[in-house]
Amino acid sequence: MVAFIRRKALSCFISDFTDGKKIKVQLIDEIDRYTTQEEGVSYNAYIKMQQEKRNKVNQYLALQESLLLEAQEITEMGSFYVDFEHPENSVTTPQMVKLLGLPNSSPADTFFKYVHPDDVVELEKDWKRTFSEGASFDHSYTYIKDNVE
């Protein structure tokens, strides 16, 4: 919008500068080139600023992730997130993979197959409540893999 206003304002002075039609057309072309170039420079500066912000946020997130993964390794705990609507968004931390003995390429919901039968009913009840209410839950259960609890 600023470039449009600037273009219109500069065009108002053309009549004061010349009466020649050819020169007016040349000046309008020059104003258009100038404002287009200025828009490009401004746009590139804005994009660069946004990229710098995104890079800072990504660095901060990478640091936080490394701290979380280190804490999980130290405490011998793991975590996962399962997105049943979009399974490609599911995540299992390396420590959880290590604890459960799953191959790295396993889908995040694979380990549900290994929940101890005594815990399945309670876990399913929590999952159904979570989906019906839109809430999250924290649940502890016994896991069996290769006949080891």
Give a verbal description of the structure.
The chain is mostly helical. Helix content is 63%, strand content 3%. It is built from five helices and two strands, in the order H-H-H-E-E-H-H. It has helices spanning 2-12, 14-17, 21-75, 94-100, 117-133, and strands at 80-81, 91-92. It has a two-stranded antiparallel sheet. Helix 1 (2-12) packs antiparallel against helix 3.
Q: Notable features of this structure?
A:
149 residues; mainly alpha; two-stranded antiparallel sheet; rod-shaped
Provide the low-confidence segments as ranges. Answer: none
Biggest β-sheet: strands ordered side by side in the sheet: 1-2
What integer is the average pLDDT? Answer: 84
Identify the overall geometry: rod-shaped
* Secondary-structure element series: HHHEEHH
* N-to-C span: 66 Å
Strand residue content:
under 5%
Count of alpha and pi helical runs: 5
Q: What structural category arises from helix and sheet content? A: mainly alpha
Question: What is the gyration radius calculated from CA atoms?
Answer: 30 Å
Helix content: 55-70%
Number of DSSP E strands: 2
Summarize the SSE layout with pairings.
Blueprint: H1 2-12, H2 14-17, H3 21-75, E1 80-81, E2 91-92, H4 94-100, H5 117-133
Antiparallel strand pairs: 1-2
Helix pairs in contact: 1-3
